[in-house]
Specification:
binds magnesium ion, alpha+beta, nine-stranded mixed sheet, Ribosomal Protein S5, domain 2, binds adenosine-5'-diphosphate, Heat Shock Protein 90
Length: 619
């Protein structure tokens, strides 16, 4: 039978170090947190060889008196909590009393400190857990912690250290996170004698974001601030044009602490749904301030993860604040379209804000006495409702390839585009009509140049938003069938449909069980009247039967609205009459975000005249 024995302190400390100190960046995080807890307003970080050789953090905080130095590096010794109840009202970043002891166990640590009310400072050196005698030393107010030769006595950990560059990447990120959380504190980071960051204190967090993440992101920020009696959410999110291929630029802070929280990241993704392409992630710098009693920070050794008492409420507040902010914000910005066949500098801009003015103008040109009345999507036909006819489309032939005679002999059929050809008579500006090409795209002249619109994506967006408004206000137009139609389904499909009857009724779909695997459809959305009840149901079932995780009713509803909008919209490949083209364009301003389809793809690309001029070597 094995015998049980108490482990020596040094082994306990090494085990603790194994949990908390994974790499040099972990040391930096712990020491920075200590400096912030000490009320420092300036913190300087100096490292050598990615932190493997040296990490020195100097602060101007409250300091530690000589007689407390030994306690500071003792395990489970802290000035931040005194009893178990305190664990539920932690106001500081640290509280476990383990960091200095752990670090001192696995490195050569020199702790030097002087509180403001002491004439002289004192220093304590600990080598691999072995204390040297405390010595008096002259030093400024505050604390300096020097960590040399990290992992020198834990060869396995030492072996796992990566290249200087990799370790420096992690270490810089650790500094970044705390510097973003505390813009009022001056931070500096020096590596190998080179100053990497010098971040003066600022009242405007955007200055800090600009310094650390670049001015492009900083300029695209949308401010968020919402508060209820217990939770305050504030900070910034970036315009959807500044998305990332991973979620690393999603900075969430809880009471000054950087955290990762899958649920809040999900809320963020939801808020941007339809604004970003699949696989793109929003950028954010958001702070949550919550009474410490409402959150447990003692669930993870490095406190990266926390447990909220009422996670659902925070989820809703985050999602709700962002959604309402987006509704009142013009989210359009220029962005280049990757893969577009243009010179690298020749950006194709996404649709611009002027376009909605253009279509207001277009509407006036149509001489409709009540411009708003005719263009609300009424549904019912599955076609774009006819709009007042306009002048026949002016078709312009593009200049023929070299070899053909130009100008063509038959001037009547082949007219030079009056806008492109500078010598031609200027056309009336911003002709409201558009040219449909390849039964897919609508080409429109606008103030800036030329716009190419994806007919399906635009129509889908308009229908989706209109549907969403109607579903939310409970005013969806549903078409009742004179004779309810039985639809035969597979057993699992019938079960999915009947389980979600409530949800389907919100979408205007009325279903009842009819025995066995048959369901009766007695009504479905007017918008889908071109489809049979069977087709409609089949489409919706795809959304209802998701693999794995059960989506929330809200997600499901959204998914189904996407499907309906997609089904009801004109297709890629549908030929449209000029009237239909005009009707579609005239409805464009009805969509809050007519720049992206509900899946986040752009609905239009703008080629500015300047770009065209450049490409044709006219400038
Ligand atoms: P914790 O931060 O969880 O309390 P640490 O091991 O990190 O544990 O630090 C132990 C104690 O040493 C702290 O509670 C604090 O009183 C003191 N201390 C550590 N670093 C500093 C510092 N930079 N300035 C002032 N006091 C410090
Ligand atoms: Mg600490």
């Amino acid at each position: 039978m094995p015998s049980i024995c108490q482990l020596p302190t040094s082994v306990i400390n090494k085990i603790a170090a194994g949990e908390v100190i994974e790499r040099p960046a972990s040391v930096v995080k712990e020491l920075l947190e200590n400096s912030l807890d000490a009320g420092a307003t300036r913190i300087d970080v100096v490292v050598e060889k990615g932190g493997a050789d040296l990490i020195r953090i100097t602060d101007n905080g409250c300091g530690i008196s000589a007689d407390q130095l030994t306690l500071a590096v003792a395990s489970h010794a802290t000035s931040k909590i005194a009893d178990a109840d305190d664990l539920f009202r932690v106001h500081t970043l640290g509280f476990r009393g383990e960091a200095l002891a752990s670090i001192a166990e696995i490195s050569r640590l020199l702790l030097r400190s002087r509180p403001a009310d002491c004439e002289a400072g004192a220093e304590l050196e600990v080598v691999g857990g072995r204390h040297e005698p405390i010595r008096p030393v002259g030093c400024p107010t505050g604390t300096s912690v020097e960590v040399r030769q990290l992992f020198f006595n834990t060869p396995v950990r030492h072996k796992y250290m990566r290249t200087t560059q990799t370790e420096m990447g992690h270490l810089t990120e650790a500094v970044c996170r705390l510097a973003l959380a505390h813009p009022c504190v001056h931070f500096s980071l020096t590596h190998g004698g080179r100053l990497i960051h010098d971040l003066p204190p600022t009242d405007d967090p955007r200055d800090r974001i600009a310094a650390l993440c670049g001015s492009q992101i900083a300029e695209s920020l949308i401010a968020i601030d919402s508060e209820d009696d217990q939770i305050r959410l504030h900070g910034y999110v970036a315009n959807p044009t500044h998305s990332r291929g991973n979620n690393r630029m999603q900075y969430l802070f809880l009471n000054g602490r950087h955290i990762r929280d899958r649920s809040l990241q999900h809320a963020l993704g939801e808020a941007y749904r339809g604004l970003l392409l699949t696989g793109r992630y929003p950028v954010c710098f958001l702070h949550l301030e919550i009474a410490p009693e409402l959150v447990d920070v003692n669930v993870h050794p490095t406190k990266l993860e926390v447990r909220f008492q009422d996670g659902g409420r925070i989820y809703s507040q985050l999602l709700g604040s962002l959604r309402s902010k987006f509704l009142s914000t013009d989210l359009v910005a220029r962005g280049s379209v990757p893969g577009a066949a243009t010179d690298s500098e020749d950006e194709i801009a996404a649709a611009t804000p002027q376009t909605s003015e253009l279509f207001d103008w277009a509407k006036r040109q149509l001489n409709d006495p009540k411009p708003e009345s005719g263009n609300t999507w009424s549904g019912g036909t599955g076609q774009i409702p006819p709009y007042r006819p306009v002048e026949p489309l002016q078709m312009h032939t593009v200049a023929p390839p070299t070899g053909a005679t130009f100008p063509p002999a038959d001037g009547a059929t082949n007219r030079v585009d009056p806008v492109v050809g500078e010598s031609a008579t200027p056309a009336p500006h911003f002709a409201p009509s558009a040219l449909q090409i390849h039964n897919r795209y609508l080409v429109v002249e606008n103030e800036e140049g030329l716009e190419v619109i994806d007919q399906h994506a635009l129509h889908e967006r308009i229908l989706y938003e209109s549907l969403r408004d109607k579903v939310l206000s409970g005013s969806i137009e549903s078409q009742r069938l004179l004779v309810p139609e039985p639809v035969d389904l597979a057993a699992s499909e019938a079960a999915a449909v009947l389980e979600n009857r409530e949800l389907l009724s919100q979408l205007g779909v009325a279903v009842e069980p009819f025995g066995g695997e048959t369901v009766l459809v007695s009504a479905y959305p007017a918008m889908l009247s071109n489809f049979s009840p069977h087709e409609v149901l089949q489409g919706l079932i795809e959304g209802l039967q998701t693999e794995g995780k059960q989506p929330s009713p809200r997600d499901l509803l959204d998914e189904l609205m996407h499907m309906i909008a997609c089904k009801a919209a004109v297709k890629y490949g549908d030929s449209l009459t000029p009237e239909e083209v005009d009707a579609l364009l005239a409805q464009r301003h009805l969509a809050q975000d007519h720049h992206h389809c509900p899946h986040g793809r752009p609905t239009a690309l703008v080629f500015t005249r300047e770009q065209l001029d450049r490409q044709f070597k006219r400038v």
